Amino acid sequence: MIDGTEPVNGLLGHSYELASGAETLTHYETWADTYDREINEDLGYAQPTRCAAALAEVTGSRGGVFGGHVLDVGCGTGLSGIALRDAGFINQDGCDFSPSMLKRAAETDIYQRLFIADLNEGLGTADETYDAAAAVGVFSFGHIQPSALRKILRVVRPDSAVVIGLNDHFWELGTLAAELHAIETEGVAEIAFQEHGDHLPGAGIGGWVIVLVRAST
């Protein structure tokens, strides 16, 4: 259920019922072969393009090529990486919790490096490695806790941008909004862009795109 009244069908609907990392892994391992068709082709997944455009705007690379190294967190089958590439982010690594999703991502030939990561436990990547990062559809039920946003911020360099995209259903819980407020209050990063719009228009689901810029050191 998205708003308490309308059911969501298919494996997408089950993704809103996940309660643990183990359930999440099993779910996405099962979903890998049909994910692109259900989410992108059937429902018109809007967040990858929206997030890539917002990141390009904040980094000043709109209409050009971003020369830095980008991490696509929770890259899934590579839909977000394709959108980032099309927006000029041509040097990308990707990570995901699901080996089957990573196998599909490898088929896009977009990523320089792909690796398994459970973001709730940490990325296993040195701090200040990347010049930008994206987490599209990562923060959701049973997936990643809001506190993991700090882990993403740590792997980008000071003054670098991180874009996140999430659906209304998760946003309305308020936990991520509270974490964003804490991050700004503590001076860890500041919000440079925030916009509501389509998430999965084919399912009538909206969502937020937010870009954070890590503070200077």
Explain what the structure shows:
This protein has 217 residues and is an alpha/beta fold. The protein has one domain (10-214): Vaccinia Virus protein VP39 (Rossmann fold, 3-Layer(aba) Sandwich). The protein is built from nine helices and seven strands, in the order ααααβαβαββαβααββ. It has helices at residues 10-15, 21-31, 35-42, 47-59, 79-86, 99-106, 149-155, 168-171, 175-185; strands spanning 70-73, 92-96, 111-116, 130-136, 156-167, 189-200, 205-214. It has a seven-stranded mixed sheet, with helices on both faces. A hairpin with a 4-residue loop joins strand 6 (189-200) and strand 7. Helix 4 crosses helix 5. The longest helix is centred in the N-terminal third of the chain and has 13 residues, at 47-59. The protein is globular and about 40 Å long. It starts with 9 loop residues before the first helix and ends with a strand. The model is unreliable at 1-9 and 13-20 (pLDDT under 50).
Write out key terms for the chains shown.
single chain; 7 strands; 217 residues; seven-stranded mixed beta sheet; disordered N terminus; Rossmann fold; 9 helices; alpha/beta
Shape, principal axes of CA atoms: globular
By CATH, the architecture is named 3-Layer(aba) Sandwich
CATH superfamily: Vaccinia Virus protein VP39
Summarize the amount of helix as a percent range.
Answer: 25-40%
Distance between the termini: 43 Å
Mean pLDDT: 85
* Strand order, largest beta sheet: 3-2-1-4-5-7-6
Strand tally: 7
For the report, how would you describe the main beta sheet?
A: 7 strands, mixed
Residue fraction in strands? 25-35%
Rg measurement, Å: 16 Å
Which CATH class applies here? Alpha Beta
How many separate structural domains? 1
Number of DSSP helices? 9
Class by helix and strand content? alpha/beta
CATH topology: Rossmann fold
